Amino acid sequence: MDDNEYDSLGATEKGPNEKMPLIQHGTSRYKPRCPITVEPVMFLYFLGTVATAPLATQYLHAKVADDLHFDPEQYHSNQSEDISICLLNASDPVVKMEQLVQEISSGWLQKFSLATMIPAIIVTTFYGSYSDKGGRKFCILLPCVGSFIKNVCNIVVVTFKLDISWLVITCVIEGMFGYYATILIGGMSYIADITTEKQRAFRILVLEVMLWLGSAISQVIIGYWVKADPTFLGPTVFITVLYGVSALYTFFLITETVEKDPEARFFTLDNVKAMLLMYARAPNGEDPSRVWKIRTLCFTMLFGTMSLVATSTVDVLYELNFPFCWTSTKIGWYTAAVSVATQVAGLLTLPLFKRCKMPEPVIMMIGTMSALLWKGMVAFANHDWEMYVAGGLGVLGILLVPVLRAVMSEQVSAHEQGTLFASIASIDCACSLLGGVLFSTVYEYTVMYYRGAVYLTMVGMYIIALIAILYYFIRSSRERKQNMVKKSCFSVHNHDDMRVQVTAFPEPKET
User: 44, 266, 295, 379: which has the highest count of C-beta atoms within 10 A?
Assistant: First the structure.
């Protein structure tokens, strides 16, 4: 590879906090021949993962109802049926039974979340730092294999109609392989390896769009498939195949960007220590202000992403419930419509905001406000059109996460990217765990009295994130101005020193 290719990769470009080249010792000086790298595997993996959420929720709903000898399908809205739960009084025994099914299903969803996320959080702390020395492919391949094994087990559970508790065991298996958090480490770190600071936010957004696109397609597919195959076996097999294909793609088609260190070890406390030290102090030669910046951005991510990564199951229960009583098909189309609108809005607005030189914290605030309005309107929605308007208000919510990841990535050097994204993935896992338990619990205990209370809880999360972003913006702007003043004074001082030297040592006159 010639020098021009190396420079175009951003290997010699240094940001204000990237004092080392983006591609340095320990990483291959490699520019992908094809601009499409990890995007397909991320799309396939999240197509399966996002499809699993509504599938598991609806399977639980049907399984619990069957155990209680209750058939909710005959009461759900359908033009070919005369009876609809939405036409019944809230005190009707049928409505009460539906609420009981929702409560029990919500309780099982909490157990699934705990069984998956607790082991995922533990192993993720090792995977990220190891990827800086052991390679990125490892972090991309492992979750694909784990999810494949889990879904093979799910096929057995669904086929033989085993007890729901067996699904908890399959969730533990998936969590031990890192779940989606680990594949995010590998994918995001891979993108950071092959991009410059200027390219990074948009490339991360493209990666996020792959996740949302997978979400949109999977929702429509699962909606129709569940209606056509109430046994849930067909969709489960389809998801298993997706994970198998993603594993094969990773193994054969993704080129490693990190030159593996033969002394790299996986289970070592040094990996955990490296992640914790990132939030404690800056390495020698790095800007010490990066510590408070990373801490603030981490806090923002905790509250800003919890409502994004942990609400899909609650959303499905909310839409199945009174007064909407949506079918699986309608839920799929609604989710797909919101996802597509969000992707288009994100791809159009982020480059526009960048071209207008809008500060990244301002973009994050716009995304947070959009998501806040979305959840706030859903909390008070009573009609279908209000749900669609709420989704329209939230289309810019996609801007928060990719820009936040990019800003955090800019704070660290190239050899810390895997460690950084490991911490981000751990936060994602914590958000899924805490958010899944919190929102399911709130919904379980408030659905009888005020079903929208769970969404008001999400609004509170976004308000906290918005305050944190505002604090980051004000303080970082102030520090930037102070640094500019210091540089200006230093420049003037050096200029005066040069004038003194010229005066003290005049050039000899010609004789």
Answer: 44
